[in-house]
Specification:
Helix 1 packs antiparallel against helix 2. It contains three helices and no strands. It has one domain: F1F0 ATP synthase subunit C (F1FO ATP Synthase, Up-down Bundle). It is mainly α.
Amino acid sequence: MQIRKAVTFLFVLLTSLLTAAVAFAEEAASEGGGDGTWMKFFATALVIAIPASVGALAQSRTASTALEGIARNPNASGKIFTPMILGLALIESLVIYALIIAFMLVGKY
């Protein structure tokens, strides 16, 4: 439970930093004081870093739990393996969506 609170806090913190970076980048670009490109690329880096790290945590927890279940009941390995692979594929698809969004943001600037 403590880990969940820490991950939630980290997610909220990084999301607010991402939002602030984009807002300040647009403000600096409109004032002519700078183009704000470095902030846009920083925001884009956060867009891929957050889902990749959370996806890696989710995949490791999924694999750990599945292997623990198989170790406790080896006869259920067939029933555990297929949903585990499906879950891992869905987690990875969310990270790939974030990668595509990051590429779109880089191409936009």
